[in-house]
Each structure stands twice: as C-alpha cells, then as structure tokens.
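As a warm-up, study this chain.
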Amino acid sequence: MYNPHVKIPLVQSLAWSFQWSAAVVLRHPKVLAIYVGAGVVCAFLWFVAPGVGSILDFLYTLALIPLALLTHNEILRGPSHLDAQTLGEGYGRVLGYLLDVVVLGVVAALSAIVPALLISLAFMEQSSNYMSTGAALLLFGVIVVAIIVATSRLALRLPARAIGSLISWREAWSMGEGHMLALCAGPIAIALVFSVVLGGAYALLPNSMEALVSMLVSPAQVIVTCAFLSVAYGQLRQTPAAPPAAGKAAD
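Now compare it with the structure written out below.
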C-alpha cells in the first residue's frame, strides 16, 4: 500500500532516474546493442524504401515495450532479464502494457482537443485570418501542460503493471494525489533534455541522418522516462528506489 504522506523530491528523483538509466544500460549491453542494430536497419530501410521503413518504424516502437518492462523491473524488483518474470507468462503483461499506453494516448489526445478548440474559437472571434507566433506558442504550451496534467498521475499504473502488481486507473490517480508538480515536471524535464539532444543532432547532421538519430535516441528516452515513473512509484510504495553505486553486467 502506498503512503500518502510521502513526498516525491523532484530533483533527487530526476537524478536517480538518470543514474538508474545508466545502470540499466551497463547491466544489459547486449540488449541495448540489439536495439541499436535494429534502429540502424530501420533507419536504412526508411531511407531506401520509405513505405517499408514506416512499417518497421511502427514495429520498432512496439518492440520498445520489453525494454520499458525491463527498466521498471530492474528498479522495482532488482536485477532482471527479459524472461517470464519480467515479461510475464504468455503475452498478457506485454499486451496489457501496450493497451495502457494506448489508453494514456487517448487521454492525452482528448485533453489536447479541449484547450485547442477553446483557444481556436477565441482566436476566430477576433476576426483574424492568421495566428501570431505568440498565440501559436501559447496554444502549444497549453496543450502540452494539459496532456501532462491529464496523464501524469495515471501513468503510475505502468510500473505497477510491469512488475505484476496491477492497480486500477482510480488507484493510480489517487496514488498521485499531492504529487502533481513532481509527476508533471519530471517528464517535461526529461522531454526537454532529449529535445535539446535531438535538436543539436539535427542541426549538426545531414537531413538523411534524422531517422537514424531518432531511432537511436528513442530507447534512451524510454529508459529514462520509465526510470522516473519507477522511482516515483517506488517512493510512494516505500520500496527501494535509490540507484546502485555502479551497474553490473547482467547479460
């Protein structure tokens, strides 16, 4: 049972998330090498055959779910492998995790539509034929905040699902009560870090390399984001969440 009196320290949780991510990478170099290799192949096919590349891009995204489950389990359960303890018996846990992500995506889409419509209607009433840069940035900011607020507490269901201790959406929402700031600011900070990394890479590399960069960064972003959710969930459940002093190979 979670402790409602525990507070999630944002800065410490972010630091632990990146430390845990490094530990996961060090413990599973072979797994990460497979993802890197698959990303290179998908990026190459995307370049030479965009139609096939699009399908492989979708499959590659789905293939990141076992990596997410592995990250959650490493932090909340201890040293783990891509076996039945991590992935669950059959396809239930993997499929359930995918469906939870889809639900969060639907919630995010619905939460974005309402502010977008309201701001667009207000803009149309001003009888202007175009939206200024400031208004566009305002709309984007409002949409991002709405999405994060709507999904941040619900996302605590993901680490619970990953370790086989499934909680309801209502329980996930209740667990996040009083922690909205940390649960919202953490994913935003992680997204900003990777946006800067991608932006810098796109600026320095030719356009033909964009797909490859995106493929290589995606696993890292999944690991760090799942690590943050696991650290937050672990603190609320009062289970060990501090990262190890040094990662040890597990493959």
